[in-house]
Amino acid sequence: ASSVAERLGLASPNVLYRWKQTQLEESGPIASTLEARVHELEVELQRVIRERDILKKALAIFGRNE
Questions:
Q1: Cα–Cα distances in angstroms (integers) from residue 61 to residues 40, 52, 64, in the given order
Q2: Distance (Å, rounded) from C-alpha 39 to C-alpha 2?
Q3: Cβ(13)–Cβ(28) below 8 Å
Q4: Are 13 and 2 in contact (CB under 8 A)?
Q5: In terms of pLDDT, which residue wins out, 45 or 24?
Q6: Tell me, what's the pLDDT at 66?
Q7: Whose CB among 5, 26, 28, 59 lies 3.0–4.6 Å from 13's, allowing a Cys bridge?
Q8: Which residue in 5, 23, 26 sits closest to 14, CA to CA?
Q9: First-to-final CA distance of the chain
């Protein structure tokens, strides 16, 4: 948020957060549902990235024995 606020010339990322909250309140339950889904997908993505990194390390370890 800080880098986005800086690129937009905003004084603080708090402006973005307030704008986002206002938009969610005005958009109703559909926006809240989408926001929740985005959060779920971000959590899942982080899990998959961790799993991928573990598998890369395991491949490097087991590949050394050949």
A1: 32, 14, 6
A2: 19
A3: no
A4: yes
A5: 45
A6: 58
A7: 5
A8: 5
A9: 46
Mean pLDDT for the stretch of residues 15-19: 89
Per domain, the residue ranges of the chain are: 2-64
Rounded CA gap, 49 and 52, in Å?
A: 5
Residue 52 — very low, low, confident or very high, per pLDDT cuts 50/70/90? very high
Is residue 24 within 8 Å of residue 31, measured between CB atoms? yes
Buried b (16+ CB within 10 A) or exposed e, 12-47: eeeeeeeeeeeeeeeeeeeeeeeeeeeeeeeeeeee
Task: Kindly state the average pLDDT of the residues 38-55.
Answer: 96
